[in-house]
Structures are given as structure tokens and as C-alpha cells.
Amino acid sequence: MTHDVAHYQGLVDTAMAPHRWILCGDVAAVFTPVVDHLREIGAPRPLLLAGSEGTGNQPDPEAAEVIVLGTSSDTMLGGIRAYHAALRSLPQSAIDRIEAWDPDRTARVLASFLDTELDIAGRPSWGARPLSWLALEDKLRAESIWEAAGVAHAGHVNVAAVASDLVEAARSMDRGDGTVWAGDDREGWNGGAEYGRIVVDPDNAHDAIDFFTAHCDRVRVMPFLTGVPCSIHGMVFPDTVTAFRPVEMIVFRSPGSDRFRYSSVATTWDPTVEVRAEMRVAAQRVGAHLREAHDFRGAFTMDGVATVDGWLPTELNPRFGAGLGSVGRSSGMPLLGISRLLIEGQTGGLDPVEVETIAVEASDRIRQLGGLAMITVPATGTHEQRVEYSHGRMIPVAEGGHGMLELGPSPMGGLVRLAMDPGSVPAGTFGAPVAQAGFALADELWDTGIGPLIPATPA
User: Which site in 5, 215, 225, 246 is 20 to 30 Å from 86, CA atoms measured?
Assistant: First the structure.
């Protein structure tokens, strides 16, 4: 029997509709569509535990009980960590509101895809990844996974977070373009390139050395890989692994800085046919290894770089990824919901071949491109500007155009968000320069202080 997107959305809705949900989202505005959808399918009125209100439309108070915990930080990762910690140490006022909202104590918790299974005020989570899978995300474990799965990868060394060891490792691994250092998970999960540094001259890498010696026990040192940062997503089913289309990771550097600046994803760029096939095979092999060795199920992400030597993976994220969200939006396929069903073992009605075919065909046909820039300049309220991308420049327009540029509040102070209309950017377009043009316009319009950015260089 052939199914369509409605069939898979129905499977997820059937699992969700009967239950009262505690929704966990560090930014309330992101969950407005989730709240609206729960109301549409007749689910009981949910409760949203948010870290901050964020940029965009807020949930309707009649559609959801909303508790804003007021978490904040000066970095994206810090904001996520602060929010996850707050969920595990709720103030009594929040617990009292949960008890009043769910007096029969039957609610379930829908954790963030970045989080692990957790209990909130005695209510268990559903569809969240087990804590044991979190250890697989440590950047220093990646090579052992590539080796076990038979996936080609760039060489690296893992060394103690000691100045002399770091400098020696950088000298030995440099191929002429510098090295990239990535820290371990001593302080917990890390992502968004916040524990990554590019080191061109190890003898003058004082800032990087100071950071890693303060925050990590060990550091992975590998050659800087010239090419397009990109990821491939897989989904582990009981007897097979699906692989989706490659996704560009929009990552910048700032002049004079050793930091990377992760700024979201795009599906407009296309690798070569050979590299695409290589990435998909790698995902299938790694997914099979994760299932056999770690009883893994659901979605996972492999990040890497498309180089002149092919695609070389750099890290594993044993969870749903932002790029898979872009793939899902093109088709309407509820990939996050399907991943949660797989984690719970609720596999009835799921056809992995069909899920892959629908999602890949739609994401190849309808391209997505967005960009995020966290800024320290405080923003109050939301400012919106329609934009048109033409000849390498982002131009403000009164109406029409190709997308929306927004400025609004965030836990870090402010947020600039670029959302190009689906399908408005032609297939084959390298996404980073488009996002770069959007951020340059934000600086002009609102003095956001993002500054000059250096995109990756396609191999």
C-alpha cells in the first residue's frame, strides 16, 4: 500500500492527541505552531515550559498554559544549558502551576530534541533520547565510530588539554591551512561550534589554549579541511537505516578571530553526485553500527566537510538535527515525530523506504535557506523587513521579494533571523553568501554589530 504525508502525520497525531503535554522549549515563539497544531487535533490544552519568550508570535494563552523561566546566557550553548538545568530545578511557583494544570498527574513531557529523557514534577518524558546515547556526541569518540562503521575520515589526534601537547599536536597535524581543535564533553554536551577553534599559528594560540585548559580535559586536533561544511542525516529503523539529502551548514569566521560562527542550514547547495552518494552510504553504515552496538533508534546527524578528497566526517550528533528540520519542511513529513515514535518502539505503519523517498524527493525539489545570528545588542520587540536577493546583495523591499529578515529578543540579548521563502533560492546555490548578505543588511538597518563574515570556500 502506498502512503502519503497525511498517513505519517496521522501516526504522530494519533500518538499525541490523547495526552496532556508539558512542552519543553527554550524559546516560546518557536513552539507557537506546535501549540496551534495540538489544538487542531483536539489534544488537551498543553503547558509550555519556556526559557524565554524569544522572537516571533507568542502562543495564545487560551491554547496553552505558558511558564517562562527567564533563563539567559551570553552564548547560544550557554542559553541551552541554562534552560536544561532550569527544567531540572524548577521553582516551587512553576511546580504549583503544573499541579493546578494537571491535577490528576497524567501529563507527559515532550523534551527538546537537544535534551535527554527527563522527569518534570513527577511526569515522565516520551520520545526523548536515553541519557546513555549522549556520550556518543563527545567529539573525541567520533573516530572510533567511523572506524567501526568503515567510513573514511580525516586523521586526528586526541591530546591532553595542556599547552605543550596542544602545540605539538597542531604542528604535526597541519597540512598547510592550520588545524581545528575541538574540546571534550567535560562540562556537558556542546555544539554550535562553540567548543571549536581554528588555529593557524600554534605558537600564538594563546586564546585557544586558555579556553581549552579551562573547560576541557582532552582536545581533538585535526587538519583544517577546506570545503563546504555539510551534514547528512539518517534515521534508524528496526531493520534498516534511511538516509536523507545533504544539508549545507552555514558556518562563518570573523576576521582576526579563531572562532567559528554557526548560523543555521541550507538545502540550496548541491555536492557532486559522487559526494552525495558517499555521504548517504556513510549515514547508512553509521546508523547500522549505532543500532547494533548501542541499541540506537531514531534520527542522527553526521557533520563533515565536502573536500577535494570527498566528504570527510568530523562529528556525530546522536539526535535529531536542524538540517533534518529543513528536509522535513519541504515535504511536510513529520520527521521529528517519526523519530520519537521509533525511540518509543511504536513502529506500526512506518515504512522506512517511503519515508525516505517522500522526504528526499521533496527536499530536492523545494529548497530551504535560513540564517541565525545571535547578538549582544539587546532587542525589544520584533522588527521585520521583506528582502530580495539579487547579484550578491540583500535588498529591502516594501512587499514581495524573496524572504524575511527579522530582529528580535533572545536569551543572549538579540537575534537576527533570515528566512528565505521556500524555493526562492535556485537549486545549486551556495547558501553561505546569501546569509552573509542578509546579516550585512541587518547591520545597515538596525546597527546589530554582526560585522564582516568570512564564508567557507567550496573545494
Answer: 215
Tell me the three cell numbers of residue 65: 498554559
- pLDDT digit string, tens, across residues 77-88: 888 899 999 999
Burial 124-143 (b: 16+ CB within 10 A, else e): ebbbbbeeebbebbbbbbbb
The residue ranges of DSSP E strands in 336-451, in sequence order, are 370-375, 383-390, 393-396, 403-410, 413-420
- Give domain 134-365's CATH number out of 3.40.50.300, 3.30.2310.20, 3.30.470.20, 3.40.50.720: 3.30.470.20
Distance CA 316, CA 283 (A): 10
Can you tell me which residue has the cell 521563502? 421
Rounded distance between C-alpha atoms, residue 67 and residue 312, angstroms: 43
458, amino acid identity: P
C-alpha span between 159 and 286 (Å, rounded): 25
Separation between Cα atoms, residue 231 and residue 90, nearest integer Å:
35
**Structure-block grid coordinates of residue 56:** 516571533
pLDDT tops 70 at residue 1? no
Q: Each residue of 133-175: pLDDT tens digit?
A: 999 999 999 999 999 999 999 999 999 999 999 999 999 999 9
SS3 assignment, position 255: coil
Tens digit of pLDDT for each residue in 32-70? 999 999 999 999 999 999 999 888 889 999 999 999 999
CA angle 263, 266, 267 (to 5 degrees): 165
- In the block, residue with C-alpha cell 553526521: 302
Name the strand (E) or helix (H) holding 331: helix 322-331
Cα–Cα distance measured from residue 347 to residue 330, given in angstroms and rounded to the nearest whole number:
23
